Structure formats: C-alpha cells, structure tokens
Amino acid sequence: MSGTLKIGVLGSGSGSNMQSIQDAIEAGSLDARIVSVVSDVPDAGILRRAERHGLDAAYLDPAPFKTKLDGEAEARTIAHLERRGVEVVVLAGFMRIVKPGLLARFPDRVLNIHPALLPAFTGIAAWRQALDYGAKVAGCTVHFVDAGTDTGPIILQRAVPVLEDDTPESLHARIQAQEHEAYPEALRLMAAGRLRVEGRRVRILP
Ligand code: GAR
Question: pTM for the whole thing?
Fold first, then answer.
C-alpha cells in the first residue's frame, strides 16, 4: 500500500462512524478515500449519508444468512470491493460476523470498532451490557478483525466514565463521541504505515 489509502466501509446502521471518517478526509486530516460503502440493510442510514457525500454506496443482499457474511454473499461483497480497489475494509456498525474468506482476501486489513473496552462485553449492545453489569468505566475499541467475535488485536481504546444517572442511550452517546475520534485516528496510523501486528499485540511505530 502506498499513497492515499482506499477504504471500503461495511455498515448496517446510521453510519455516524463512516461520517466521522469522511469528515476527517474532507478536513484534510486523513490521507484516505472511501471508495465503497456497502450495507446489508437496504434502507440503512449509512447508505443515505454516503450518497450525500457523493460516495459509491450499495446494498448487497446477505441472504440466506441472518448473522454472518458468508457463501455467495461474501463472494459478491469481496468482488464488489475488489472492483473498487479497496485496500482496507472498515467495519462501522456492521452487525454481521465476517468469515475467513473476506479476512484471507484482506489480511490484517479488516478493522472494526466495538462500543466497549475489549475483552469486556463482546457482542450486541455492549454499552447496555456495561451498564447492566455495573461497570464504572466504559469505552470503545478499534481492533483488527480475526476469526473470532470481537477478539482481534487491539489498535487503540478510548475510555469514558459511566455516570450515576446514565441510561443506555446516554452512555452510548458518550461512547460514540469517542468512537468518532478513535476511528479516524486508527486509520491515520494505518494510512501512515505505522501499525504492525505482532501476534496479539499491535505496535504503533514512531
Ligand atoms: C457503533 O456504536 C458501533 O460501535 C457499534 O454500532 C454502532 C454503529 O453506529 N458496533 C457494534 O456494536 C459492533 N459489534 P453508526 O452506524 O452510527 O456508526
């Protein structure tokens, strides 16, 4: 990889993380280009946001699977990303498990953001899990994706306090504010070639 980093974003939701990445690019603080936005949800906000920014946006039918991107749907997604020259795949609120086919095509080049301080609270609605558990600190994690669920090597984390009167919504909003800084920051490091995966550890090169 050299020059401007070509990013493909996969998302299922509102797309606020994709937006934060595009904002950093437009502000000139991230040397990258979002060359493809793909959603497994036909009316997802992420597709509308992408179109507002003039980005290439597409719904790809994930059938017949409900919780993973596999088989034909995985193959179609890989081909779609390849045709657009994607170098790094960014999962931004993508609510499916990605399988070895995609990971093998983009080795150490699939990133995810998770709304918890991993390895705590993997899976769905992690902010709610943290609140229900009684955690005093919550946060977000940007990590490389491996074959497990939310288990890959950690690139960076941001912590936030859990406040006495927090609701799931207020805590999620506080975490998301950090996500919107953490993802562009992780991609800045990636674009600068400063991330090296050594086993479980990600070294940040000077
Ligand atoms: C984000 O909070 C992200 O961390 C979470 O979904 C939200 C998507 O928001 N991802 C997961 O829970 C993945 N396990 P967005 O669509 O506004 O970026």
Answer: 0.97
